[in-house]
Amino acid sequence: MSPLLLLQNMLRPLNQWRIPLLLLLLGLMPATLFAHGVAENDAHYLESVSGLQFIPYLYLGAKHMVTGYDHLLFLAGVIFFLYRLKDVAVYVSLFALGHSLTLLVGVLASIHVNPYAVDAVIGLSVVYKAFENVGGFKLLGFSINTKVAVFLFGLVHGFGLSTKLQNLKLSPDGLVANMIGFNLGVELGQFTALAFILLLFSWWRQSESFLNRAYVSNMVIMTAGFVLFGYQLTGLLISA
Description:
By secondary structure, the chain is an all-alpha fold. It has one domain (about 50-240). The protein is built from 11 helices and no strands. The longest helix is centred in the last third of the chain and has 31 residues, at about 175-205. The chain is globular.
Protein backbone atom coordinates (compact mmCIF):
# COMPACT_ATOMS: atom_id res chain seq x y z
CA MET A 1 0.00 0.00 0.00
CA SER A 2 1.36 3.41 -0.95
CA PRO A 3 2.04 5.99 1.80
CA LEU A 4 -0.73 8.20 0.36
CA LEU A 5 -3.38 5.46 0.58
CA LEU A 6 -2.19 4.57 4.06
CA LEU A 7 -2.59 8.18 5.17
CA GLN A 8 -6.08 8.37 3.63
CA ASN A 9 -7.15 5.22 5.49
CA MET A 10 -5.83 6.62 8.74
CA LEU A 11 -7.70 9.89 8.29
CA ARG A 12 -10.99 8.36 7.06
CA PRO A 13 -12.51 7.88 10.56
CA LEU A 14 -11.63 11.46 11.48
CA ASN A 15 -13.11 12.67 8.21
CA GLN A 16 -16.53 11.37 9.31
CA TRP A 17 -16.37 13.74 12.26
CA ARG A 18 -15.49 16.87 10.31
CA ILE A 19 -18.90 18.53 10.74
CA PRO A 20 -19.25 17.84 14.48
CA LEU A 21 -15.70 19.06 15.00
CA LEU A 22 -16.43 22.19 12.97
CA LEU A 23 -19.50 22.88 15.12
CA LEU A 24 -17.47 22.34 18.27
CA LEU A 25 -14.74 24.73 17.14
CA LEU A 26 -17.40 27.29 16.25
CA GLY A 27 -19.05 27.03 19.64
CA LEU A 28 -15.94 26.94 21.77
CA MET A 29 -14.02 29.67 19.93
CA PRO A 30 -12.44 32.01 22.48
CA ALA A 31 -14.63 34.98 23.32
CA THR A 32 -11.79 37.33 22.47
CA LEU A 33 -11.97 36.18 18.86
CA PHE A 34 -15.73 36.12 18.35
CA ALA A 35 -17.14 38.66 20.79
CA HIS A 36 -20.89 38.99 20.98
CA GLY A 37 -20.45 42.67 21.65
CA VAL A 38 -19.00 45.42 19.52
CA ALA A 39 -15.30 45.29 18.62
CA GLU A 40 -13.15 47.99 20.24
CA ASN A 41 -12.35 49.77 16.98
CA ASP A 42 -15.98 49.66 15.90
CA ALA A 43 -17.08 50.97 19.29
CA HIS A 44 -14.69 53.94 19.02
CA TYR A 45 -16.02 54.68 15.55
CA LEU A 46 -19.67 54.58 16.64
CA GLU A 47 -18.97 56.92 19.52
CA SER A 48 -17.05 59.37 17.32
CA VAL A 49 -19.65 59.90 14.58
CA SER A 50 -22.93 61.78 14.59
CA GLY A 51 -25.74 62.38 12.15
CA LEU A 52 -26.94 59.97 9.51
CA GLN A 53 -24.41 57.12 9.08
CA PHE A 54 -26.66 54.54 7.44
CA ILE A 55 -24.06 52.62 5.43
CA PRO A 56 -21.47 52.28 8.23
CA TYR A 57 -24.18 51.10 10.62
CA LEU A 58 -25.42 48.69 7.94
CA TYR A 59 -21.92 47.24 7.58
CA LEU A 60 -21.36 46.91 11.32
CA GLY A 61 -24.73 45.20 11.78
CA ALA A 62 -23.84 42.62 9.14
CA LYS A 63 -20.40 42.15 10.68
CA HIS A 64 -21.92 41.46 14.08
CA MET A 65 -24.21 38.73 12.80
CA VAL A 66 -21.59 36.98 10.67
CA THR A 67 -19.18 36.85 13.62
CA GLY A 68 -21.84 36.13 16.25
CA TYR A 69 -21.02 32.57 17.38
CA ASP A 70 -24.14 32.31 19.55
CA HIS A 71 -26.48 33.36 16.75
CA LEU A 72 -24.84 30.94 14.33
CA LEU A 73 -25.05 28.00 16.73
CA PHE A 74 -28.72 28.69 17.40
CA LEU A 75 -29.51 29.01 13.69
CA ALA A 76 -27.60 25.79 12.99
CA GLY A 77 -29.74 24.03 15.58
CA VAL A 78 -32.95 25.50 14.19
CA ILE A 79 -32.37 24.38 10.60
CA PHE A 80 -30.56 21.14 11.42
CA PHE A 81 -33.51 18.94 10.43
CA LEU A 82 -35.32 21.38 8.13
CA TYR A 83 -35.12 20.07 4.58
CA ARG A 84 -37.58 22.42 2.83
CA LEU A 85 -36.64 26.02 2.12
CA LYS A 86 -40.20 27.02 3.01
CA ASP A 87 -39.76 25.71 6.54
CA VAL A 88 -36.35 27.35 6.84
CA ALA A 89 -37.85 30.68 5.76
CA VAL A 90 -40.65 30.45 8.35
CA TYR A 91 -38.39 29.72 11.32
CA VAL A 92 -35.67 32.16 10.33
CA SER A 93 -38.30 34.88 9.77
CA LEU A 94 -39.68 34.31 13.26
CA PHE A 95 -36.20 34.58 14.70
CA ALA A 96 -35.47 37.72 12.65
CA LEU A 97 -38.74 39.34 13.75
CA GLY A 98 -38.00 38.75 17.42
CA HIS A 99 -34.38 39.83 17.00
CA SER A 100 -35.35 43.05 15.21
CA LEU A 101 -38.03 44.07 17.72
CA THR A 102 -35.87 43.98 20.82
CA LEU A 103 -32.79 45.35 19.07
CA LEU A 104 -34.65 48.48 17.95
CA VAL A 105 -36.88 48.91 21.01
CA GLY A 106 -34.06 48.15 23.42
CA VAL A 107 -31.80 50.88 22.04
CA LEU A 108 -34.38 53.51 21.06
CA ALA A 109 -36.47 53.13 24.24
CA SER A 110 -33.39 52.64 26.46
CA ILE A 111 -34.62 49.38 27.96
CA HIS A 112 -31.68 48.21 30.05
CA VAL A 113 -31.10 44.54 30.80
CA ASN A 114 -28.07 42.95 32.44
CA PRO A 115 -25.90 41.84 29.47
CA TYR A 116 -24.52 38.80 31.30
CA ALA A 117 -28.02 37.59 32.17
CA VAL A 118 -29.19 38.05 28.57
CA ASP A 119 -26.19 36.26 27.12
CA ALA A 120 -26.62 33.42 29.62
CA VAL A 121 -30.16 32.90 28.34
CA ILE A 122 -28.82 33.02 24.78
CA GLY A 123 -26.48 30.18 25.71
CA LEU A 124 -29.49 28.24 27.02
CA SER A 125 -31.30 28.89 23.73
CA VAL A 126 -28.54 26.93 22.00
CA VAL A 127 -28.91 24.15 24.57
CA TYR A 128 -32.69 24.10 24.11
CA LYS A 129 -32.60 23.64 20.34
CA ALA A 130 -29.97 20.92 20.40
CA PHE A 131 -31.85 19.12 23.20
CA GLU A 132 -35.04 19.28 21.14
CA ASN A 133 -33.22 17.97 18.07
CA VAL A 134 -32.11 14.82 19.90
CA GLY A 135 -35.67 14.18 21.12
CA GLY A 136 -34.98 15.18 24.71
CA PHE A 137 -38.39 16.73 25.34
CA LYS A 138 -40.19 13.67 23.99
CA LEU A 139 -38.30 11.52 26.47
CA LEU A 140 -39.47 13.85 29.25
CA GLY A 141 -43.06 13.46 28.11
CA PHE A 142 -43.92 16.95 26.94
CA SER A 143 -43.54 19.13 23.86
CA ILE A 144 -42.75 22.77 23.16
CA ASN A 145 -44.11 24.83 20.29
CA THR A 146 -40.90 25.29 18.34
CA LYS A 147 -42.11 28.30 16.38
CA VAL A 148 -43.07 30.15 19.56
CA ALA A 149 -39.77 29.19 21.19
CA VAL A 150 -37.73 30.40 18.20
CA PHE A 151 -39.58 33.74 18.23
CA LEU A 152 -39.14 34.19 21.99
CA PHE A 153 -35.46 33.35 21.84
CA GLY A 154 -35.19 35.77 18.93
CA LEU A 155 -36.39 38.47 21.33
CA VAL A 156 -33.62 37.50 23.74
CA HIS A 157 -30.95 37.50 21.02
CA GLY A 158 -32.01 41.02 20.02
CA PHE A 159 -31.64 42.22 23.59
CA GLY A 160 -28.19 40.65 23.61
CA LEU A 161 -26.91 43.19 21.12
CA SER A 162 -29.01 46.14 22.29
CA THR A 163 -27.39 45.87 25.73
CA LYS A 164 -23.96 46.20 24.12
CA LEU A 165 -24.97 49.22 22.06
CA GLN A 166 -26.45 50.89 25.12
CA ASN A 167 -23.02 50.84 26.75
CA LEU A 168 -21.75 53.10 23.96
CA LYS A 169 -22.21 56.85 23.86
CA LEU A 170 -24.15 56.96 20.60
CA SER A 171 -25.13 60.31 19.20
CA PRO A 172 -28.92 60.85 19.30
CA ASP A 173 -28.65 62.75 16.01
CA GLY A 174 -29.89 60.37 13.31
CA LEU A 175 -30.05 57.47 15.77
CA VAL A 176 -33.39 56.12 14.52
CA ALA A 177 -32.25 55.89 10.90
CA ASN A 178 -28.86 54.54 11.94
CA MET A 179 -30.44 51.81 14.06
CA ILE A 180 -32.70 50.84 11.17
CA GLY A 181 -29.58 50.55 9.03
CA PHE A 182 -27.83 48.52 11.72
CA ASN A 183 -30.79 46.17 12.00
CA LEU A 184 -30.97 45.78 8.23
CA GLY A 185 -27.29 44.91 8.27
CA VAL A 186 -27.93 42.29 10.95
CA GLU A 187 -30.53 40.67 8.74
CA LEU A 188 -28.25 40.78 5.70
CA GLY A 189 -25.51 39.20 7.77
CA GLN A 190 -27.94 36.56 8.96
CA PHE A 191 -28.90 35.77 5.37
CA THR A 192 -25.22 35.42 4.41
CA ALA A 193 -24.43 33.15 7.36
CA LEU A 194 -27.59 31.14 6.77
CA ALA A 195 -26.69 30.57 3.12
CA PHE A 196 -23.29 29.20 4.17
CA ILE A 197 -24.84 26.92 6.81
CA LEU A 198 -27.45 25.64 4.36
CA LEU A 199 -24.77 24.86 1.77
CA LEU A 200 -22.77 23.04 4.42
CA PHE A 201 -25.75 20.98 5.54
CA SER A 202 -26.83 20.30 1.95
CA TRP A 203 -23.39 18.88 1.21
CA TRP A 204 -23.29 16.89 4.45
CA ARG A 205 -26.78 15.44 3.98
CA GLN A 206 -25.62 13.73 0.81
CA SER A 207 -23.34 11.61 2.94
CA GLU A 208 -24.46 8.55 4.88
CA SER A 209 -22.71 10.00 7.92
CA PHE A 210 -25.34 12.74 8.36
CA LEU A 211 -27.97 10.72 10.21
CA ASN A 212 -25.30 8.63 11.90
CA ARG A 213 -23.61 11.74 13.28
CA ALA A 214 -26.71 13.90 13.84
CA TYR A 215 -27.03 12.92 17.51
CA VAL A 216 -23.36 13.54 18.25
CA SER A 217 -23.41 16.84 16.37
CA ASN A 218 -26.33 18.13 18.39
CA MET A 219 -24.67 17.01 21.60
CA VAL A 220 -21.66 19.07 20.51
CA ILE A 221 -23.93 22.07 19.91
CA MET A 222 -25.54 21.51 23.31
CA THR A 223 -22.14 21.37 24.99
CA ALA A 224 -21.15 24.64 23.33
CA GLY A 225 -24.39 26.19 24.61
CA PHE A 226 -23.63 25.09 28.16
CA VAL A 227 -20.11 26.55 27.84
CA LEU A 228 -21.57 29.88 26.71
CA PHE A 229 -24.09 29.77 29.56
CA GLY A 230 -21.42 29.01 32.14
CA TYR A 231 -19.12 31.72 30.82
CA GLN A 232 -21.82 34.39 31.04
CA LEU A 233 -23.14 33.12 34.38
CA THR A 234 -19.64 33.46 35.79
CA GLY A 235 -19.49 37.02 34.51
CA LEU A 236 -22.87 37.74 36.10
CA LEU A 237 -21.76 36.43 39.48
CA ILE A 238 -18.46 38.32 39.37
CA SER A 239 -20.13 41.58 38.36
CA ALA A 240 -22.67 41.19 41.16
